[in-house]
Specification:
By secondary structure, the chain is mostly beta strands. The chain has two domains: 36 residues, no CATH class; 120 residues, Immunoglobulin-like (Sandwich). The chain has one helix and eleven strands. The strands form three sheets. It has a six-stranded mixed beta sheet with strand order 5-7-2-1-11-8, with no helix packed on it. Strands 4-9-10 form a three-stranded antiparallel beta sheet, with no helix packed on it. A hairpin with a 5-residue loop joins β1 and β2. The radius of gyration is 31 Å and the shape is elongated. The model has no long low-confidence stretch (mean pLDDT 85).
């Protein structure tokens, strides 16, 4: 609501709106409420959602391994976890690079994972994925069959094909818990 003193050629201080101005605005507000104009919203812009691109993963033969890792605690005890990694060739049919921000085997919780692996669209991308996770899924000394969950920059999840991860001794598995 514009005030009547704004129309004056000479500006001066004013105390309040006139009774007529208040009645006019009140009538306009009540009319808008009766017409439910306060519920009318401008049409929201259509959000263009990015289609989830297909991610292809081809493991490099012999380059998928797991072992037992450990983190020494202040108490002197060893907190054991699984270290697992693989090399693979990644491709995506997307229109923009995919950033792999989190990677962990299915059924585990990542403690630390390789961060910011970039997969360029429509190209062969050789990438190493590595993670420290809990719980330890494998049996000491035996291969582990599992697949990875990968998360991109939009929080979308991808699952790799299941493959065999060869056990490699780190010596930590012999350390008491």
């Amino acid at each position: 609501m514009e005030h009547h003193t704004l129309y004056d050629s000479k500006t001066s201080q004013h105390k309040n709106y006139t009774a007529g101005e208040v009645r006019e605005v009140k009538r306009a507000i009540l009319g808008s409420i009766a017409a439910k104009e306060h519920f009318k919203q401008p049409e929201a812009p259509k959000i263009i959602r990015r289609k989830k691109p297909k991610l292809n993963v081809v493991y490099t033969i012999g380059q998928a391994v797991w072992s037992v890792a450990g983190q020494l605690q202040p108490s002197g005890k060893m907190k054991k976890m699984m270290q697992i990694s693989f090399w693979a060739t990644f491709t995506t049919d997307g229109d923009e690079p995919m950033l792999i921000l989190e990677a962990y085997p299915e059924g585990t919780t990542p403690i630390l994972s390789s961060a910011m692996d970039r997969v360029e669209p429509r190209q062969l991308n050789r990438v190493m994925i590595s993670a420290f996770v809990r719980p330890i899924l494998g049996t000491i000394g035996e291969p582990l069959m599992t697949r990875f969950v990968l998360k991109d920059q939009y929080g979308r999840e991808y699952k790799t094909p299941t493959t065999s991860f060869r056990f490699v001794s780190s010596g930590i598995e012999k350390h008491p818990d």
